[in-house]
Amino acid sequence: MSKAKFVYVIYIHTTAEKVWNALIDPEMTRDYWGLARNRSEWTPGSVWRHEDYEDAERLLVTGSVLESNRPRRLVLTWAHPDDAGDAAKTSRVSFDIDPFMDSVRLAVTHEELEPDSAMLHGISAGWPAVLSSMKTLLETGAARPMTQRRWGCDAQPRGV
Amino acid sequence: MPGQDKPKFVYVTFIRTTPEKLWSALTNPDFTRRYWFGMHHETDWKPGSSWRLLFADGQVADAGEIVEADPPKLLVIKWRNEFKPELKSEGYSRCAIEIEPVDGAVKLTITHVMDRDESKFIEAVSGGWPRILSNLKSLLETGDVVLKGRHLPGDHDER
Fold this sequence. Notes:
The complex is a heterodimer of chains A (160) and B (159).
Chain A: E1 4-12, H1 16-24, H2 26-32, E2 36-40, E3 47-52, E4 59-69, E5 73-78, E6 91-100, E7 103-113, H3 118-140
Helix pairs in contact in A: 2-3
Chain B: E1 8-15, H1 19-27, H2 29-35, E2 40-42, E3 50-54, E4 60-70, E5 74-81, H3 85-88, E6 93-102, E7 105-114, H4 120-142, H5 155-158
Antiparallel strand pairs in B: 1-7, 2-3, 3-4, 4-5, 5-6, 6-7
């Protein structure tokens, strides 16, 4: 069965370095990424953890860093903690950060997803919310309220 | 399943504004020019009315018809490229623009579909929509667009 792919492109009035920082700075992800933080050494081969900002034991997504070319490209593997190590349930996310007309083009490519999986549906709803809020935070200094709190288990996407 | 593989572009963005302001931003020609790289719509936004999207110089980029209009919630446009023969020959696409209030902001969903097995037109709009909608979001939230200028590099090619 062929795997699914989700692509989202957004243009942000900022610099590539600031987008990179936004991806790894806990004080920023807390506000635009549903009260979560990303923890890693951000070097190829290192583990990365997407965890609750206030409770590091609450792991939401995990994987490893495949590529890290600051500030232009970051590639991660991505799995729900219960599925960690299961290649069939591990997807891949690439962040491509390119300067474009005095701003930045950020392309998030999430691929190798299981078709019709909860993860696919979750990230398809999640990335637009997270990246819309990241853009608002970088351009106005304040993220959107929707992404400043912990996401519930009901309608909210699993993983993102 | 047949039908699920039709070329389709879906884009969701969340904008700090109201449905009424977003509807106005989508339909007002002067406002549209500011975020749509100098382009604007020519229509009265009534179901059955003709619709055209014009470049800044007046050339017709795309044309079609308003299929549905339910302010400030839904617009559906029958939409065909008019300036590139290889895209025009694909015929009409369907573009649905949905506006929903959500948590002090507005969720805007664009669903652009072509009823063919393959579509260069959908490829083209897949490059164009993120630029237009990123600009629209910035303009409504900050008062200024993110990508300035009337024409982008490759503008006439991609959108």
